[in-house]
Amino acid sequence: xxxxxxxxxxxxxxxxxxxxxxxxxxxxxxxxxxxxxxxxxxxxxxxxxxxxxxxxxxxxxxxxxxxxxxxxxxxxxxxxxxxxxxxxxxxxxxxxxxxxxxxxxxxxxxxxxxxxxxxxxxxxxxxxxxxxxxxxxxxxxxxxxxxxxxxxxxxxxxxxxxxxxxxxxxxxxxxxxxxxxxxxxxxxxxxxxxxxxxxxxxxxxxxxxxxxxxxxxxxxxxxxxxxxxxxxxxxxxxxxxxxxxxxxxxxxxxxxxxxxxxxxxxxxxxxxxxxxxxxxxxxxxxxxxxxxxxxxxxxxxxxxxxxxxxxxxxxxxxxxxxxxxxxxxxxxxxxxxxxxxxxxxxxxxxxxxxxxxxxxxxxxxxxxxxxxxxxxxxxxxxxxxxxxxxxxxxxxxxxxxxxxxxxxxxxxxxxxxxxxxxxxxxxxxxxxxxxxxxxx
Length: 440
Description:
Helix content is about 55%, strand content about 10%.
């Protein structure tokens, strides 16, 4: 009795450390108050014509200290830098007069007219950078004289250089046999067991979605089917975090639905489903090639006003109600997930929202996280049993860690329902919708 009352006796075992696995797309909309001040410093220093000091503040602003994604060195008015963007490294140097940056895309041992034609066409879509050929090295370059290198120009110029290069290097090598991969030795391979789990669930989620689609009327349920297929894109993108060809295929499937044409939703749904069938047929070895770990500096999508995120959540939750009330719980949960998952995929959302979204995804896909080696349990789907206290404690921890930046944010955990997954998702995303992310 005294052991229980006073905690005597055998000590509680220490929790196992969770595996280090990264999920989703990188967002640079995650700056602390101190980091945001460095942008203001950079802007002020540029106006004062203190160009090298401006670069000190700028690179401090873009550096994600946790990710160690930027290396910056200065000696007097000269210096050099490099930073990571997925499978690419951007390297640069600067002086009192100018700044130059470049990134290697691939090697081209023999000249190729088709490759050069492709690059010429893509050059028209660049605003700050350009494609270049240095002997057999295919690269992208950005340069600017010091007097016009404002923080804004530098940010958008380097972002274009980095994000375009990271996307195009894999696609160019896959599309043209004349090209060879280059300068990607920094990319970390992930453990084989992690790849196995990701491949297993890639197959499982696609099959589960396509089986559900096959059981309902394609015309009457066209809206619900669209939600299922789009939610599947965002689930794979966030939880499996594919790169290269696999990521490009996901983006193409999403483009089928959102392309502005006059085709009915039923046709778009059919085409998306067919593309997912093709994805299931990709060999395990090919999938494994597109599963790796790397660092990022820039988000490939842009931030939005929080009202845009709130509207997406609200719209999905309104459309979920019919499926909930007519006993289609799986479709209802996927629609709830879609509202915030769409934003996580399409926008650079504040990190606090990503952390809350991540918790929602763990709860909805607990079996996947358990298979990856995560020990903390939030929900047992077989027993329909939530770990209420653990969930509430995690939400409070997230809120407290961001209190300085978002003092008005108040996730009301007392509004959460723990009777089933549909109602939990609904009440959880409702709280996300009404969060106040004003800075003061």
